[in-house]
Amino acid sequence: MKKILFLFPVLALVSCYNAEHNCKDFKNGKFKFEFEVNGVKKTTFFERKDSIEIETFEGKTDTATIRWVSDCEYILQKKHPKNMAEEKAISMKILTTAKDSYTFEFGMVGSEEKQRGKVFKVE
Questions:
Q1: Within 13 A of 36's CA, how many CA atoms are on the CB side?
Q2: Residue 20 Cα distances to 6, 83, 94, 96, 100, angstroms
Q3: Do 67 and 53 contact (CB within 8 A), yes or no?
Q4: Do 63 and 53 form a contact (C-beta atoms < 8 A)?
Q5: What is the Cα–Cα distance from 29 to 37, expressed in whole angstroms?
Q6: Share of residues in the chain with pLDDT > 90 (%)
Q7: Dihedral angle at the C-alpha atoms of 75, 78, 82, 87, nearest 10 degrees?
Q8: What is the pLDDT of residues 45-68, one digit of tens each?
Q9: Contact 76/55 with Cβ under 8 angstroms?
Q10: Strand pairing of 28-37 and 115-121?
């Protein structure tokens, strides 16, 4: 019985934990996103200014518009898509934030398939 009484306050403290959400800190700035493709580490850099995002990946630069749905969610749409896949909008959701990074979830608008990643603010 004593174990149960001890466990209750611990569970109450853990259930009160809220992930940090300072999404406004990441609406503007320069960022880096690292990911792996077939065992090879890749890096993309991008700069976000409210409703525009300019991305540089493997020497190529592309521009996308941003439509903020909330402080932590936005829709990314390429301005000059080169194929049908690039014409599809991407839903982005910031899940947690830290001082210089955030964890996010993304996927094609309308798709249930989501992926996660972590972005680092470089400026």
A1: 3
A2: 27, 37, 10, 5, 12
A3: no
A4: yes
A5: 26
A6: 72
A7: 30
A8: 999 998 999 999 999 999 999 999
A9: no
A10: antiparallel
